[in-house]
Amino acid sequence: MSPLPAWPPALSEAQQADLAHQAATYALANGFTLLPVPPKGEHVPAIPTQVIAAPLSLLPTPFPRPAYVQAKSIQRLYNALYARVALDWEFLDGIMQYVAPVDDFQAELWNRWKAIRDEIKVTQPVQLGIFRSDYLLHEQGNAVGEKSRIKQVEFNTIAASFGALSQKASEMHRYLSEQTNYYHVNPQLHNPNSFVDNHSLEDIAAGLAEGFNAYGNSDAVVLFVVQEGERNVFDQRALEYQLLKRHRVKSVRLTFAQVAQRGQLDDDKVFWLDCPLRGEQLEVALVYYRAAYTPADYMSSAEWDTRVLLERSTAIKCPSMALQLAGAKKVQQVLAEPGVLEDMLLGNARPDVGFGAGPGSLGARDAAALRETWTGLWPLDSSEEGTKAVQLANEHPERFVLKPQREGGGNNIYRGDIPPYLAKLEEEDKSRPGEAPRREAYILMELIEPPKGVHNLLVRGGEGTPRLADVVSELGVYGVALYGGKVTPVNREAGTLLRTKGRESDEGGVAIGISSIDSPLLV
Ligand code: ADP
Ligand code: MG
Ligand code: MG
């Protein structure tokens, strides 16, 4: 693998301004957009009249081709692994019994799911996963990018976003390259194959259509469950447009509160939506959650009741409650324990998902291919390993990140903040004698060290002016998995996402205003 090229190319101020202008107009014209942050004290308007360009990079960021190819090539193994986890009730229960006493959100999700299981087993055995496995490059050589390896940050099983905007970022960079020729400073980059052919929007929409078709009623709809005041609407809408245009599948977009008002189960547990404006009742074939992953989405038990109502229905869920639980960071850590991954992916006794997992189809080499992408993960429980981890975190905090069972960014504790944070948790434990220590709600993870010396021109949403930044890029690979019951199983890789942030920031969420949506320039 060759070192990453010096980047970005030397552009005059006038060239930068021209690129920024062209990027902004391209983004606004092509739905590479977000809703603007509403003025203080106001809400996102009911009928939007303004958009801003999504946070973007003016140029793609160099990324080692072998690492990119590798990340894509193992996605189907990851799909198989997490599909298996979601079908393995005993495995999930074995983990959640330790998480629940120290994490109210996970407890509610797990307990509600168990209650459904006890009452009705399952009404819909088919599950749809739209996943995203996230990686950072880990620097191992001396020259920039010389020996970078992908290391997994996390595996998302619910509301994995930016598939649509990511395809638009790739398309924008290709357009800017062709239109301006500014990128072609390095002969290596003349090659049009340096740009990725990324179809994440189309591939994810195709996955949703496959889930819809598995239900078996072409007059039914896909229900998008979304957050109140969502600004990332065009990433979601683009999927709806694609579903209708390409697959002739209709969708309805509602918040939890609206679903509660309009939805009901009939005696056969079919989920019906009352749509008075359309003068009809619509049957829901597939529930696609772009909400429901954070405690803030459940203001009261009413939202949990709505979640349960949907879960109990015959609609296919993307994801099911079990699949959401499978995406917990604690599951990631337990899979990394000796032998656990191997047993889950290859073991005879584990549930059959109908594709590429289990004896005969996969082997030790496949499990090793996944393990190769992992970095140090430790429990913080009372086991010997857990006690060792606490000591390690206190002695060498600069090597670690502490993660709770949360999604959506902005929840982790980094480096020097870890020891005082652990001390605070221990202090809190004193007021809850006899209960499990609060630190058990977290996992400890080794920090991945991305290559240094990579720069790019980033533009924040709504600002327009580029900022030259020392950057770190996080690669996401999407996956689609349809399995369970008698369905013809689907297991596909579904495109990629590159989010690029300034090195000074530990977190990387686009939604929380830190990252730009980027695309890789394969070198
Ligand atoms: P979330 O589910 O909230 O997105 P993540 O595990 O993805 O949680 O962590 C959020 C961000 O924190 C990541 O996007 C990445 O920028 C940073 N991060 C997480 N784990 C690591 C790690 N092991 N090394 C370096 N950075 C990390
Ligand atoms: Mg996540
Ligand atoms: Mg993440």
From TrEMBL:
Annotated GO CC locations: cytosol
Write one Pfam family the protein is assigned to.
GSH_synthase
Q: What is this protein called?
A: Glutathione synthetase
Catalysed reaction, written as an equation: gamma-L-glutamyl-L-cysteine + glycine + ATP = glutathione + ADP + phosphate + H(+)
Q: Does the keyword Ligase apply?
A: yes
> Is Chloroplast there in the keyword field?
no
Q: Give, as one word, the top-level EC class.
A: ligase
Kindly tell me the pathway this chain contributes to: Sulfur metabolism; glutathione biosynthesis; glutathione from L-cysteine and L-glutamate: step 2/2
**Single Gene Ontology MF annotation:** magnesium ion binding
Provenance organism: Cutaneotrichosporon cavernicola
Q: What cofactor does its activity depend on?
A: Mg(2+)
Q: What positions does the entry give for substrate binding?
A: 132, 158-161, 230-232, 236, 290-293, 499, 510-511
